[in-house]
Write a structure and sequence with these properties.
Distance between the termini: 92 Å
Radius of gyration: 28 Å
Number of helices: 7
Strand order of the largest sheet: 12-8-9-13-14
Helix content: 25-40%
Order of helices and strands: EEEHEEHHHEEEEEHEEHEEH
């Protein structure tokens, strides 16, 4: 009896039908395919990562535009932009080092009614004892909230609320937590929170649009709204920043990563919501020359703008426009756009 199946060089003979042999991969062919796939992944992965970062940077810029729209709504309604933060510096229980005192309400919390968070603002006002403000026990859960429009999606740092500590790193006796912000307001060249003896008024010290008890109006910005920086980034990968405000006696502390790599240390409560660009008198005295801190500068401290975007940071100008500022911006240009009434002329192409 003949076999129904037989083989030949051409394939398998089954029931009188010749079936072709199925070709297989040799080891060399398989290795070549794997190598090609590896090369393609190596080419495409950076492009994918770049596209993702571009999307994150656009979202970050959108957050800043939203905040600036609220800024202008505040100015239209109240005839001034929000203060950097509010503080009754004449109170007897003020902080002896900085003269900070209640209520401590930051620019972010002052914008709440114009960010579709009117309920938040109403709840803060309804329980806020003018003797307590941000520290009021009834406000604890409110000021510890997190909002996406205060968070940059590129920030590699913590997103959760943080416990406020004093300048030495010990948690305040109140145990208060504040919700994080990745956006800060520009106080100008100087760091008035670091001057000694402390001054109760910063009007003659700060030359940026936001500082303690500031009352900046459109007409105050004589250098031009489109060439004056109002807001910018500060990643929680570098230090602690808050949207709600400041706590007297508190401080902004750097992460261990940046405390080690940059050598920055904690700074007073104002730096929870404010930054400065330099040159500042205290730094000039310390270093013997004027120091200017453009975004992402390796000489940045907790009181400068810093982002996790490669190459620079987003900033918002007084006219509501948002631009990406290179970390290699001319330092004099950065100085000029950080003041609001210095008389400097900055062309659009200069930065």
């Amino acid at each position: 009896m003949k076999n129904k199946h037989s083989t030949s060089r051409l394939g398998v003979l089954k029931n009188g039908v010749l079936l072709a042999k199925r070709p297989g991969f040799t080891l060399i062919e398989l290795l070549v395919v794997i190598a090609i796939i590896g090369v393609l992944v190596g080419i495409l992965l950076p492009a994918v990562q770049q596209a993702r970062e571009s999307a994150r940077r656009m979202q970050c810029g959108s957050n800043l535009r939203q905040l600036m729209l609220a800024m202008h709504s505040h100015e239209s309604a109240r005839r001034q932009f929000p203060a950097g933060y509010l503080s009754d510096t004449l109170r007897p229980d003020r902080d002896s080092d900085t003269l900070d005192a209640a209520p401590g309400t930051g620019w972010g919390l002052q914008l709440a009614p114009y960010l579709e968070e009117a309920t938040l603002a109403d709840n803060f006002a309804s329980v806020s004892d003018p003797n307590q403000g941000v520290l009021h026990t009834g406000n604890r859960s409110l000021v510890a909230q997190q909002f996406q429009f205060f968070l940059c999606p590129s920030s590699a740092g913590d997103q959760e609320p943080f416990v406020v500590k004093d300048i030495d790193g010990s948690p305040l006796a109140s145990g208060i937590e504040l919700g994080r912000s990745h956006y800060v307001a520009n106080a100008g060249h100087e760091e008035p929170w670091g001057m000694f003896p402390a001054s109760s008024s910063w009007d003659a010290i700060a030359n940026g649009p936001f500082y303690r008890n500031s009352a900046t109006r459109n007409k105050s910005v004589t250098d031009g709204m489109s060439t004056t920086v109002f807001l910018g980034e500060h990643t929680s990968n570098l230090s602690e920043k808050a949207w709600a405000g400041v706590v007297p006696g508190g401080a902004s502390h750097p992460t261990q990563k940046f405390a080690t790599s940059i050598g920055t240390s904690a700074d007073y409560a104002a730096t929870l919501v404010l930054v400065h660009s330099g040159p500042a008198a205290a730094e000039t005295t310390l270093y013997g020359y004027e120091v200017i801190h453009p975004p992402n500068s390796p000489a940045s401290h907790v009181c400068q703008m810093y982002s996790d975007h490669p190459g620079g940071a987003n900033v918002a100008n007084g006219d509501g426009s948002v631009r990406f500022v290179s970390e290699f911006i001319n330092q004099d240009v950065w100085r000029y756009v950080s003041s609001m009434a210095g008389g400097e002329v900055v062309t659009s192409g200069a930065w």
